[in-house]
From TrEMBL:
<dbReference type="GO" id="GO:0006629">
    <property type="term" value="P:lipid metabolic process"/>
</dbReference>
<feature type="compositionally biased region" description="Polar residues">
    <location>
        <begin position="7"/>
        <end position="21"/>
    </location>
</feature>
<feature type="domain" description="Lipocalin/cytosolic fatty-acid binding">
    <location>
        <begin position="43"/>
        <end position="131"/>
    </location>
</feature>
<dbReference type="InterPro" id="IPR003057">
    <property type="entry name" value="Invtbrt_color"/>
</dbReference>
<keyword id="KW-1015">Disulfide bond</keyword>
<dbReference type="GO" id="GO:0000302">
    <property type="term" value="P:response to reactive oxygen species"/>
</dbReference>
<dbReference type="InterPro" id="IPR000566">
    <property type="entry name" value="Lipocln_cytosolic_FA-bd_dom"/>
</dbReference>
<protein>
    <submittedName>
        <fullName>Crustacyanin-C1 subunit</fullName>
    </submittedName>
</protein>
<dbReference type="GO" id="GO:0005737">
    <property type="term" value="C:cytoplasm"/>
</dbReference>
<dbReference type="Pfam" id="PF00061">
    <property type="entry name" value="Lipocalin"/>
</dbReference>
<feature type="region of interest" description="Disordered">
    <location>
        <begin position="1"/>
        <end position="21"/>
    </location>
</feature>
<dbReference type="InterPro" id="IPR012674">
    <property type="entry name" value="Calycin"/>
</dbReference>
<dbReference type="GO" id="GO:0031409">
    <property type="term" value="F:pigment binding"/>
</dbReference>
């Protein structure tokens, strides 16, 4: 049963499957509920029955997602948030803290944490990405 307000595609989705001998390739094309063309490409790989009940799949999916800048000073940092609905009611949200240098001052980090907490993002789940010294940061600033 579909949730109230769920939009279904207005036209049929076509899926073509083929095999190259080692995997199946699936390509789907159709019109979504908003009338936009949608394409999904994926692969189906064989797997052991002991590990999975059904075959595993991968998808090459492109979609539009909101990109919300919660806070920034336009020179040192930005706090970015995005939330996407897919498959009729499943959600994925993303939160990023971007910096123009390999390290970020605590004052900017606290501003981002406050911005994320204000919209209910659990900042304790964040993982720091350690930046290496091999990246040409000064060159990238001018891009």
């Amino acid at each position: 049963m579909l949730a109230s307000g769920t939009k279904l595609p207005s036209q049929t989705t076509h899926t073509n499957s083929s095999s190259n001998g080692s995997k199946f390739i699936a390509k789907s094309t159709g019109i979504n509920a908003d009338g936009n063309l949608m394409r999904h490409n994926g692969q189906v790989f064989p797997c052991l029955l002991e590990t999975l009940i059904s075959p595993s799949t991968t998808k090459d999916v492109t979609f539009t997602a909101p990109y919300v800048i919660l806070d920034t000073d336009y020179e040192n940092f930005s706090c970015i948030y995005s939330c996407v609905e897919f498959n009729y009611g499943y959600y994925a949200d993303f939160a990023f803290i971007f910096s123009r240098s390999p390290s970020l001052s605590d004052q900017y980090l606290r501003r981002c944490e406050a911005a994320f907490k204000e919209i209910g993002v659990d900042v304790s789940r964040f993982a720091k990405t350690v930046q290496g010294s091999n990246c040409p940061y000064d060159t990238q600033k001018s891009l």
